Amino acid sequence: MRNLDIFNESKKYMPGGVNSPVRAFKDATVDPPVIKKGYGAYLEDEEGNTYVDFIGAWGPMILGHCDEDVVNAIKTTCETQIAFGAPTELELKLAKHICTTVDNIDMIRMVNSGTEATMSAVKLARGFTGRDKIVKFAGNYHGHFESFLVSAGSGVMTEGIPGCAGVPEESVKNTIVAQYNNIENIRCIFDKYGSQIAAVIIEPVAGNMGVVPAKPEFLKGLSDICKENGALLIFDEVMSGFRVAYKGAQSFYGVKPDLVTFAKIMGGGLPCGAYGGRRDVMEHLSPMGPVYQAGTMSGNPVVMAAGLATLTKLYNNPYYYEKIERLAAMLENGVKEIAKEKGLPILVNRFQSMMTIFFTNEEKIENYEDAKKCDTNLYRLFFEHMLKGGIYMAPSQFEAMFLSVKHTEKEIEKFLDVMRTFNI
Ligand SMILES: *Cc1c(COP(=O)(O)O)cnc(C)c1O
Question: N6-(pyridoxal phosphate)lysine is carried by which residues (predicted)?
Answer without folding.
Answer: 264
